[in-house]
Amino acid sequence: MRKFIISALIFVLVFSIAAPGFTAAAEDDFDAKTPVTIDGVKYENVALEKSYERTGDVYDGKWTDTGTDGKPLGKMTDGVVAANGNDEAIGCYKGGETSVTIDLGQAYAIKQVTTDLYGFAEWGIPDPSVAEVTVSVSSDGKSFAKIGDAEKSDEIPKEGWKLRLFTLTLDQTVAARYVRVTYKIQGTFCWTSEVAVFGSEDLSGSSQPPETSSESSQPAESSAASSQSAAQSKASTSSTASAKESSAPADSEEQAEESLTWLYILIGVVVVVVAVGIAVVVANKKKKE
Q: Which CATH code for domain 28-246?
């Protein structure tokens, strides 16, 4: 009986300390077909199956995103995210800077833009850790304004490939019909599979794209310097607010997990004390007998 009690005490003590560590951490994931919920509001990927134009030189091979007619094959908005860099879902373009400009078909309240970028040194595909991804929007498809720089995730190993997700989450939705994602890489091959634009049809509360004087359909660098500066200032403020907004849940989650850990420990200690008390009582009773 005494051996059983001691074994039970050891089990309870170990479980009470280790239990909080059994919670598995969620992996980074990119699902272009599933809506995201931000601040209690659900946003669909409004870029799914939408047409787009691109810059950058054509790449030949199974990873190309250019048809025989010279037009994009649609890999960037088909909702299919590559499982790794060797997946045929990849759409590659050549050049140090490539942009994908999506026509959403109508104005949407845009909240978040996400894309992926792969690297593989053996193939000469640059590490995404040194890449920059910017997002610009337009109402007419001619004048574009930069609304922010996408934040890159930590590196996600994918069967020898280096993957990073680039996400821009706005503090306030922006109403726009055209969304342009520009990739600046330190190399030749822009290796990506999808661009997701999460938004809604409800334009109430959305700001309008910053005014620009450019009538060019080229990347936002062609906009007037003063307009771009204003857009960058707005984007900086928005990105800062978004960073604070996104860090708050993480902080709360950490605090909750820490509180839960202490609760487990406290419960474990109480159980141990009670069990020890019972063991002592049983032992004394046996001695008297």
A: 2.60.120.260
pLDDT tens column, 18-33: 333 322 223 457 999 9
DSSP 96: S
Specify which residues 41 forms β-bridges with.
Answer: 38
CB 103 within 8 A of CB 52: yes
Q: Tell me the whole-structure pTM to 2 decimals.
A: 0.66
Q: Which amino acid is at 9?
A: L
Domain chopping of the chain, boundaries: 2-20+252-288, 28-246
pLDDT tens track for 104-113: 999 999 999 9
Residue 111, phi then psi, degrees to nearest 5: -115, -40
Amino acid present at 251: D
Segment 55-101, tens digit of pLDDT: 999 999 999 999 999 999 999 999 999 999 999 999 999 999 999 99
